Amino acid sequence: MARFPVHTLDSAPEASKPSLREVEARFGMIPNLAATMATSPVLIQSFIGIFDKVHGGSFTEQQIQTVLLTDAVTNRCTWAVALHSALGLQAGLAAADVDAMRAGRSPADKQLGALSTLARSLIEKRGRLDEEEIEQFLAAGFYKDLVLEVINIVAASTITNYTGSVTNPPLEAGLQAHAWNG
To answer: Residue 102, class by beta-carbon neighbours within 10 Å (0-12 exposed, 13-18 middle, 19+ buried)?
Structure first.
């Protein structure tokens, strides 16, 4: 596989540098996945825009991490599974729920389970949900607009998951405890 560079602020294309600075300001570092995204200014700029929408939407951080971890596992992106396992635990997800998602199952919590199931179905069925799947999501206490907001989170995670699978960035030392081989 062709090796993609893990850029720094010095080595990144000029048009990618503002986005990398934003990532660094938010995370206190530049994650290796974002550093590989910087090879394409269009990709890193798009990622920043959708990232803002995901984290500025209606879902809590636990719910967002539930979708992102479910998507990473479903898309089999090892880097993203490690990151979202760590971020999910940091956001307060139960370790048993994180373990369940890493194994391809839904969390035990009713709402998080419905959210995870919907996200997985969206990916596996390429958006072709049946009425029963939507009804199960609504029965867990969510509203119709949130079905559509989950699509936005899935879109964001598709960017990171596909980038991670194509560029295969090295896993940061701080994420090694959450390494995943699927």
So the answer is: buried
